[in-house]
């Protein structure tokens, strides 16, 4: 059984990951659409920038967030002056770090789903009088939706495991920024913390495994809808 402290850590992790995905979802879909359908100068550069968090050390991402969103950073100073909002050493900062780290995986899954939409169906809708927005709403989005949801769930799983950027950007504050990975790290430093590590690691593995299974199921469903076979 988990202690009240451990339940709090799990609840905070779920809240951070959920907010991160809700924050990222429209941005990820917009980027995926541009990369899948857009034709513009700098597309290769945009693709590289989107996927950069996958290849640079997470500590570097956290450091860049610290520069931009810190108390003296350009974005952080503006948020504080304009809205009285600060993300430093707050759970919202942990959500921001998780969102940045989840974005590349979400964009990749959504881009594949958008590229899998049969363009002939969109053309047929237009010949029947549907405008661009109606075609998108009635054809493109429904057909790509399983892949979009798969990307969101995959991003959620990635957010649950985020460590490096979070601890660099918002530190490891109990009850505020101490998510599952940070709590496991902190427990490893404590004498006799092995039992807590085992419990939290088990919860982390179970949540991530469920998210990965759901993401794969949604991706296979989208593949079948696009006419790609039975997904076996």
In which range does the helix fraction lie?
A: over 70%
List the uncertain runs. 228-232
Strand percentage lies at under 5%
* First and last CA, distance: 38 Å
Taken in chain order, the helices and strands follow as: HHHHHHHHHH
Structural class: mainly alpha
Radius of gyration equals 20 Å
Largest sheet: none
Inertia-based shape = globular
Mean pLDDT figure: 89
Structure annotation, total helices: 10
Number of strands: 0
Helix and strand arrangement:
Layout: H1 4-37, H2 43-55, H3 58-69, H4 74-83, H5 91-115, H6 119-127, H7 132-160, H8 164-170, H9 180-188, H10 194-225
Concise description?
This protein has 10 helices and no strands. It has 232 residues and is mainly α. The longest helix is centred in the first third of the chain and has 34 residues.
Protein described:
There is one protein chain. α5 packs across α7 (132-160). With 232 residues, this protein is mainly α. The two termini are 38 Å apart. It is globular and about 70 Å long. The protein is built from ten helices and no strands. It has helices spanning 4-37, 43-55, 58-69, 74-83, 91-115, 119-127, 132-160, 164-170, 180-188, 194-225.
